[in-house]
Design a protein that fits this description.
The protein is α+β, with helices and mostly antiparallel strands. The chain is built from four helices and nine strands; from the N terminus they run βββαβββββααβα.
Length: 123
C-alpha cells in the first residue's frame, strides 16, 4: 500500500488496481470546520485534474480534484451525515471515494509523503 499526494492537497492510497482518495489533514486545517461534503455516485468516471467532489466549510466551498483517472467503485456515504469527520480523520476514516485506477502511469507525477511534507513546509 502506497500513498501519493497532489499539490492541491489530495491523497490517494493505492492497493492493487484500486485507489482510496481524500483530502489531506493540511487541507482540512485550511478549510476550518467542514459542514458539507458532496461526493460522486458509484460508477461515475473521473479524470485526473477534474473536480469530482465539493467540500464546504464555515470559511469556503472548495472543489476536490482527482489525483488520477478512474471510475468510482465506492463513495464514503457516511460523510453526508457526519462531514465533521473530515476535520477529525482527513487521512483516515474520512476518505471520499475508492476508484478503480484507469492508468497507473498517472501516479508518476504525484508526491510521496516526504515530498508532500516538504511542499507544505514551503507554503
Amino acid at each position: 500500500m502506497t500513498t501519493y499526494y497532489t499539490k492541491d492537497h489530495e491523497w490517494i492510497r493505492v492497493e492493487g488496481d484500486t485507489g482510496t482518495v481524500g483530502i489531506t489533514a493540511y487541507a482540512a486545517g485550511q478549510l476550518g470546520d467542514v459542514v458539507y461534503v458532496e461526493l460522486p455516485e458509484s460508477g461515475a468516471k473521473i479524470a485526473k485534474g477534474d473536480g469530482f467532489a465539493v467540500v464546504e466549510s464555515v470559511k469556503a466551498a472548495s472543489d476536490v480534484y482527482a489525483p488520477i483517472s478512474g471510475s468510482v467503485v465506492e463513495a464514503n456515504t457516511g460523510l453526508a451525515d457526519a462531514p465533521e469527520k473530515v476535520n477529525e480523520a482527513a487521512e483516515g476514516d474520512a476518505w471520499f471515494v475508492r476508484i478503480k485506477i484507469a492508468d497507473p502511469g498517472e501516479l508518476d507525477g504525484l508526491m510521496d509523503e516526504a515530498a508532500y511534507t516538504a511542499y507544505c513546509e514551503g507554503l
